């Protein structure tokens, strides 16, 4: 007869996500995971695979639960440019003083730590960034169609600029005790939308 799991895999995955988010991939050992999750190494391997597979599952979980309000904010009927500005300002505020400021963004942390040397992680990072870029691009296309954004502006290039800015805000916000730095950078970038 098969044994039943004596732990909640969903809760364990969430706990692993939080540990990886705080300590990074390289900074988290299997011993750390065993201690933090409170389950044996064999159970971790049997349920999630090796440390790398668990990390990727945690990154997938993070991406699945990423900012659920972003789509709603950027696709709300009416003027689109105020919504884009509000999203960028929210990212700046969260980067400068949010609940996870010291931890940064798990996706951004993954990009900085693993870069392109881990193709599976890089694909997940790219998917996350493409999602945000697409939402921004759609809002900026709408803004242009509604006359909020001058006709000569390139919505795709602006969306990419804002994506890069928002990721940079997260990096600087994580490392800096000066929230004005990220706020000022966001405000200067938003002037490019005028």
TrEMBL record:
Give residue ranges for domain HTH tetR-type: 6-66
InterPro entries, alphabetized: Homeodomain-like_sf, HTH_TetR, Tet_transcr_reg_TetR-rel_C_sf, TetR_C
**Ubl conjugation in keyword set:** no
Asked if the record carries the keyword Transmembrane, the reply is: no
Q: Which UniProt keywords apply?
A: DNA-binding, Transcription, Transcription regulation
Residue range(s) of DNA binding per entry: 29-48
Q: What is the recorded name of this protein?
A: TetR/AcrR family transcriptional regulator
